[in-house]
Amino acid sequence: MDTLVTVGIILAIVLIAVGFVLFGPARTKRRTPPAHVPDLVEDTETTEVEEERRYETPTEPTTRLARLRARLAKSNNVFGRGLLTLLSQDTLDEQTWEDIEDSLIMADLGVDTTAELVDSLRERVRVLGTRDPEHLKPLLREELIKVVDPTMDRTLNVDRTEVAQTAGDPAVMLVVGVNGAGKTTTVGKIARVLVAEDRKVVLGAADTFRAAAAEQLTTWGDRVGVETVRGEEGVDPASVAYAAVEQGKSDGVDVVVIDTAGRLQNKRDLMDELGKVKRVATRPLGEGHEVDEVLLVLDATTGQNGMQQAKVFAESVDITGIVLTKLDGTAKGGIVVAVQRALGVPVKLIGLGEGADDLAPFTAEGFVDALLES
Fold it and tell me: Which pLDDT belongs to residue 87?
């Protein structure tokens, strides 16, 4: 009997314990909505907002011109200083003219161009009959603008024809240049210029021989919501260019911008490689399609060395425009004129700083005015 009582007591204790577990505080706790759930929802919404805002809004190209002009005016530019020397003299004697010639030649304007400019100025000053710098400044501005050549078409060839738009074919831009000139960075900045103009863009990382190039370009694209097509390191650059244009056509973008290798510009194999990239890139668009724009990126600080680079690249691919980088950090602003005359193609874009939007369309008038204000 005592045994039965003991067993009964034990069973009762077990039942009470089970009931406590099933219906006690733990059960109540489960019914209470976790306090952190609203926070999770709120965090998700915040993340979505951040995702929408993570793309940068590039500066409108037209608004960049005034800022870059002011920066160029303040730069250490021998070209500008040489011109100011002319304007600051009380009289223009023979020694002054010789000093002006030396300054302009040192600024890489070129011997022939300098001689033409100075001869023209001399004649106009003689006819004008005055040596008052205030009267000479408008005359000088006019002659300089002629030298820089405002008649050159400096627009980027990225406007698709009606036929191309109907077919869904993007414009194709190839960017070439020696390593160290800021080529890959320039491609990223060009993408920002195009995005600011409300164009849809795809980038092609065809510099497959420099390990960091594809990653660098991808980072630039990600900042403005632009896709970058890339391949494995060392893969055939032409295949990446082909894939980029193919992707651009599939996505219905406006422009495909292709970065290229720039190893030792005097190497024949590199030149052959660029020619192949240019031929293969547009094959997804069918026969008869060619690259719309081939931009050569030159470091303005290299002066006449940059001229030699330009000529080598021009022999391999038909250059249609020039991008001059680091123009604010050089004493060789005359390279603008020299390279245009040597290649017969216009400077279309200039870079005047390290900022993401420090790339702007080049204008002869803006360039000359900046020099005269320096």
Answer: 63
